[in-house]
Request: fold
Amino acid sequence: MLDIEGLTRHYGTETAVDGLSTRLARGELTVLIGRSGAGKTTLLRCLNGLEQPDTGTINVDDAPLAATDAALVFQAGALVDGKSAVENVLDGALSREPAWRELIGWHSPDEKRVAIERLHDVGLAGYADRPVEALSGGQQQRVGIARALQQQPDVLLADEPVASLDPETGRSVLAVLARAVSEHDLFGLVSLHQPELADTVAGHYLGMADGRLVLDRPAAEVDSDDIEGVYANG
Ligand SMILES: Nc1ncnc2c1ncn2[C@@H]1O[C@H](COP(=O)(O)OP(=O)(O)OP(=O)(O)O)[C@@H](O)[C@H]1O
Reply:
């Protein structure tokens, strides 16, 4: 299990995350919802080490989570234009390769093979050499997921990854995320402003209001009133 215990993060007098405790299960996608400013992004950034919590612990199977074990998929892909899909995926391995290799654009054959596999995982087999700016928004998000998987994370995080996509494309990208979490047996946490797009792939829901958890339940036990209740809070 991934255990978050008493997590608190302040910004000046603002308490973005306020004593939050929960557990995530491996292999299932947890959907994080809440109004703007509820603290979702701060929680995700604490999980991948971009923010240090003021207090609290994050443990995987009783050992502290290392920042390098968590990979984040960003809202709008955050890909490097001018590079191909596979080159962007290979960027996910940078932390494991010497900097000189990136400088001269050399990657080990093993890393390349894995990168092609990751593109296959996200339904982009055959797109490896395509420049990312020539891909659709949904395809770019899939490359972002493949790049995160290339980091070989234990925790896959995504911060509003479908915010800029139409609903049908958004659903398909969330399905790719859920499948990756299940197939690689990862902890998966995705923040969303349109929770209905995840109703067929969510395993668990967390709802935040004013930095606190107001919903923490398996998806099978969550109905639309529960979801609306989260947005009524705060
Ligand atoms: N770098 C920062 N400096 C100061 N305050 C911040 C910073 N980041 C977040 N906050 C504040 O912390 C609170 C939680 O913000 P956060 O971005 O985590 O919310 P959110 O639920 O992700 O919102 P949204 O859905 O709009 O992305 C907000 O009140 C926000 O203004």
Q: What stands out?
A: The radius of gyration is 18 Å. The chain has seven helices and ten strands.
